[in-house]
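Lecture 7 notes: from sequence to structure.
We start with the chain below.
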Amino acid sequence: MKEKTNWWATGLLFLGSFIIIIPLYMALVVSLKNPQQLAESILAVPDTFQFSNYLKAIEMTNYFQSLKNSAYVTFPTVAVVLVVNSMVSYAIARNMDKKYFKFLYYYFISAMFIPFPLIMLPIVKEMSILSLDNLNGLVLLYIVYALPLNVFIYVGYIKSLPRSIEEAAIIDGANVWQIFWRIIFPVLKPINATVAILTALKAWNDFLLPLLMISDRSSMTLPLVQHVFQSQFSTNYSLAFASYILALLPMLLVYIIAQKKIISGVMRGSVKG
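Predicted structure tokens for the same chain:
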């Protein structure tokens, strides 16, 4: 029997795709225009493409240095978060019957409800006193700030895993360290994909924390250098949008290359019961 098409769901998908595609289309079109073409029409495809906008944007933002800085912050953050947060969560998930670990769990979770603007100035001041108002300090803060949400995600997933395999490994003489790395961590691949995506997007796209922490021009990340296109009275939108596309491109390429693993990991994680 042929299944009926759910037109409501299909219509919502088309609407959602349209809402997402239009801004991307506008950004791409604007980045390929000169100011005169932009004044004539924002959405129309230009007669001649101004690819020189991208070269100027690369030069003005010191793009490759900024790209290096963003990568320096993002990749170590993701690597440390996956290891440390999963270990902390495993310890909590397997000891939730103990008051100390239950307290730790709710203590970490409660941090999700503290607005960042409330603590940003004390944090920045403290990092400055410790001489960590630099890229290394950013990595440290992103690792710490990722802990509450990731503990919530990991603990819920690990609690759904049966203990029988771990108990069998203990009988065979395995210690906790061996159990985690040889049994638990490989099973966490689906949820690791989810955590890696959320952490990478946060570290790569964040603007506020680098703005507060970084003052050295050579240490600025990609979102931070977008200020260069804004003067006191105007903004060069063609160069700015070209730079936005360039800043988006690395994460887009990572997704295109790893989309099968990312999607399968997220789907497996979402249906784990």
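Points to note: Residues 237-271 form the longest helix (35 residues). The CA atoms of residues 39 and 185 lie 55 Å apart.
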